[in-house]
Structure formats: structure tokens, C-alpha cells
Amino acid sequence: MTPERMARPRHYLMCRPTHFAVEYSINPWMDPGKPVDADLAILQWERLHALFVSLGHTVEQIEALPGLPDMVFAANGATVVNGRVLAAKFRYQEREAEGPAYADWFRSRGYDVHEPAHVNEGEGDFLVDDDVILAGTGFRTDPEAHREAERHLRLPVVGLELVDPRYYHLDTALAVLAPGEIMYYPAAFSEKSRQFLRNRYPDAITATDQDAQAFGLNALSDGRNVILPEAATHLAARLAERGFTPIGAALSELLKAGGSVKCCTLEIRDRD
Ligand code: ARG
């Protein structure tokens, strides 16, 4: 028997890729020599935005700033739990100015914003599974930032070590589908982290190499609908078997920067 899945309306923050480009390379997907269709990037993003709205979610937008081509990846802008915001502090100088831009957006709306001392790239590396935060490290977010998140967001944080540079953020290798249910790509993690994931999530969906390369784990679930890159067909089939409704999205242009569905979307978890 497949469980009946319930969608819960979400509050998201997105950033239109008005100034999107691949001008530098800070992950193996980025090749500044490869052409990017900027208009197509905007069109694909607008379809994703419209999809979230049609599913009943509230989507807010932050204004894209010139000179910050990766600002479209709103997931990296902060982590928000129960109305508390941990601002981001980026690893690379190219994205540094995004941290304060996102922090200001939250501050001007009355959120309690904590300025981080350690590098953390928001929901790129912090994924909330109900009452615990799964936190990536290895490429971007510092392990010290995990403790900082624990203190400010007031949830226990479990560290997971990423070992494959193609999967440099946790949200490129793992997605939370529903409380206690995840999908992930085991090869992206250290042996110790793999063991932890196997024990905590024995029924997890595991991605094939092809799913992972299609960025299939960079997915977003509302408890029922799971939006994921359309090329991740094996994952879509596994999701359907579990009673989820997989919805494929085309984001070819943003993928050239190493990002997809989840990277574009920051979840605002307001006070309970
Ligand atoms: N080009 C961006 C970077 O390397 C992509 C960020 C993708 N975001 C994410 N949440 N994984 O920083």
C-alpha cells in the first residue's frame, strides 16, 4: 500500500535570474567558455515560479543585484527555522555580497537575523528534516557553522561529509521528501556519513549515477509534489512508487552554473 501524501502550503523566497551568467568557476559544472542562453534561463525560472504558485505556495521575490550572477540560487541566501534566520557567509569572494543582501531582506521584514562567524551557504548545506538539521561540509560550509546553526536555529544538527566535488552542496546529493523520508546519492558521501544515512533512513530512495548527474536530488517536496529536474527519470519513478507526485522541471541554463530546482528556492519556515 502506498501512503496517501499530503501537501502543506509553503512560503518560499526566489530571485529572478535577471543578471544570471556563468562568469567564473567555483564548482566543476561551471565553464565560463560555454554559452548560456540568458533569456531561456529567465523563461525556465519563470515556469518554475509559476508552478510553485499553481501548487498553492506563497512565493516572495528578492531583487536580483547586478554583478551577482549566482544570486538566483536563493537557497544559499539563508536558513530559516521557526522565524529565526541564520544569515549566510559565502566561501568564495564572488558570492560574498549575497550574504548581506539576503540578510537585509529578512531584517527589513522584521525577522531575527543572526550574523554568522563561520562560512555557511544556507540551505545549500542545511536541510531541515522536521526536528533535525542535516548539514553538509567538505566543500563549502565549515563544520564550526554547524554548531552555530544549532545554537541559533535551536535544532540538533547532524554533520554529513561530502567527498565528490560535483556534489559540493548537500542539496545536490540529498533531498528531504517528508518527515523522516529522504532520497540521496550515497557515492557523494564519506563512508562514515553513508553509514549514518543507512542507519537513520533505512528506507531512503537512492539515486543512480545518472539521476545524480541530472541534478535529480536538487529537488523540492511539499509533502506530496516533488519538483525535480526532468532528466532524473529513475528517481521520478521511485517517487511515484512511494505515493509522491513527481513533476519534472526544465532548467538547462541554470544547470550550467551547477544549480537547479532546490537551489533556486529558499524555504521560509515562519514561527509555528
Ligand atoms: N554557482 C553556484 C555556486 O557554485 C551554484 C549554487 C547552487 N546552489 C545550491 N543550493 N546548491 O555556488
Automatic annotation (TrEMBL):
One GO MF term: transferase activity
SUPFAM superfamilies linked to this entry: Pentein
Keywords recorded for this protein, A-Z: Hydrolase, Transferase
Gene3D superfamilies: L-arginine/glycine Amidinotransferase, Chain A (3.75.10.10)
Signal peptide location: none
PANTHER family associated with the record: DIMETHYLARGININASE, DIMETHYLARGININE DIMETHYLAMINOHYDROLASE
Family membership: Belongs to the DDAH family.
Record-given protein name: Amidinotransferase
